Amino acid sequence: MPAEVTQTLARFAATLDYDGIAPSAREHTKNLLLDALACAIAGDRGEETLQVAALAAALAQSQESSVIGGDRLSLAGATMLNGYLVTAVTMCDVHRATLTHITPEVVPPALAIAERDGLTGRDLLVALAAGCETATRVGLGWDFPEARKRGWHGPGIIGPFGSAAAAGRLIGLDPETMARAFGLAGSQAAGTFAAWGTPTVKFHQCRGALSGLMAALLARERFVATREFLTAKDGGLYGTYSGGGRPEAAVADLGRRWELEKIALRLWPCASGIQGVTTALFDLVGRHAVDLARVKRVRVALPETIFDMHGIFPRYKGKFEALLSIHYVAAVVLADKALTLAQFEPARYEDPVLRKFAVERVEVKLDASLAGVQAAVEAELDGGNTIVARCEHSRGSPENPLTRAEIEEKFRVYAKGRIPAARIEEVIGSVARLEELKSVRRLMDMLRVNDRKLRAPAAA
Fold first, then answer.
1. Which of 60, 83, 212, 353 is most exposed, with minimal Cβ within 10 Å?
2. % residues pLDDT > 90 (the chain)
3. What is the residue range of 156's domain?
4. Given a cut of 50, is residue 111 above it in pLDDT?
5. Cβ 236 vs Cβ 230: under 8 Å
6. 69, 300 Cβ separation under 8 angstroms
7. Structural domain includes residue 455
8. What is the spatial distance between Cα 177 and Cα 346, in angstroms, rounded to a whole number?
């Protein structure tokens, strides 16, 4: 009889070593880490960040763990706040097969434990690979299309497993104890699309990070939990959340084919589902001299899932809805030929010209022939000409990946003014040579800003 899926994944996470990770997977793990750090450095611009910071500070009064771009909090507080910072401005990774952001759940607890225990960069790299691979593998077995029909949102469901795997690997859990950590992680799995359109979807992610950390730490104390959570007959994750799931997919070619390499990154700060549209828009403005005043109408064709999620915000309210709005993104890219966080500050998204254009001149329609994040864009100009662009694979996807240089520049852009220039380059170099880093404490020292509170967003 084949081994039960939960225990197979637990054995993988507990016993993974550096040599067992494919070189390409090691390099993508570094990409994921640097990208997560870039997102977290920018995360204090999130409208709700100060609210989550207040919660994180209230969890405990110790200060042993670093906040990225901030000062220190407790182990739990830093894990939760760093998880929110990674996702706060909507430009972190996504595993498209499960519509799940992975790094907000996996990176923060790994950094916190590695810093606390003075572990090496190689230790951190192995833990991150274990966590990212575990989360994505649990997600494959979950059968996301079926789970999505039931309303489940991935980060709060599969994220705790990745968090527990990363933290558990760093504290040395054996396979049996890791399986119990997964049982404790699964007991905290929660989050549905009822939260869509609100910042609560981002709370699912930072809560997932904290849930996995607690699961690993409690399992280490030999707390009794099921070792078969994913496939348990009564209340198992796969049966309860997706009608049985596809357990065999979770472990197929485990350790030989690296699912973490399919985790996509984002070049632009807007919803992951809009990255295909944004890729097409930049293709359009790159090939044509487009002036917003000359555009009579923009037509955006989308697959059903993206249409349902992002075609509903022509009259966006506030920063978060602007980040989700295809109507606004189309307007501002055509106007500014750029899309950074500057385009998502109130002075820009409240501009009456852009608001009017988004409502009156951007038409979003469903095209059943499109799938995934494919998108087609047509811009009808005042002279009667129509210019078109189509995206098959968005920038940052496995099929159209970002280069390491692009990820490094993303970190530079958002770290500028937050940490000293010399430290920016040291962080980039440390991640590139993560295997050589003697202590993760050094990395966290570079990322911490002593005695400096997270700044209020520009709207405040």
1. 353
2. 94
3. 5-267+400-447
4. yes
5. yes
6. no
7. no
8. 49
Residue 71, burial from CB neighbour count under 10 angstroms (0-12, 13-18, 19+):
middle
Could you tell me if 27 and 139 lie in one domain? Answer: yes
Same-domain status, 321 and 287: yes
CA distances from 223 to 13, 161, 226, 455 (A): 19, 17, 10, 40
DSSP symbols for 336-372: HS--SGGGGSHHHHT-HHHHHHHHHTEEEEE-TT--T
Strands (E), 191-237: none
What predicted TM-score, i.e. pTM, was given to this entire model?
Answer: 0.94
Q: List 390's β-bridge partners, or say none.
A: 376
Distance CA 15, CA 345 (A): 46
Identify whether residues 98 and 55 lie together within a single domain.
yes
pLDDT tens digits, 132-144: 999 999 999 999 9
Q: How far, in Å, CA of 25 to CA of 28, rounded?
A: 5
Quick one: 322 and 409 in the same domain?
A: no
243: left (phi over 0), alpha (psi -120 to 50) or beta: left
Whether 349 contacts 357, CB under 8 Å:
no
**The total number of structural domains that make up the chain:** 2
**125 and 247 co-located in one domain:** yes
DSSP state, residue 416:
B
Q: Provide the CATH number for the domain around residue 240.
A: 1.10.4100.10
Dump pLDDT digits (tens) for 216-228: 999 999 999 999 9
Q: Are 362 and 331 in contact (CB under 8 A)?
A: yes
Shared domain check, 147 and 31: yes
User: Among residues 142, 183, 135, 157, which one has the least CA distance to residue 13?
Assistant: 135
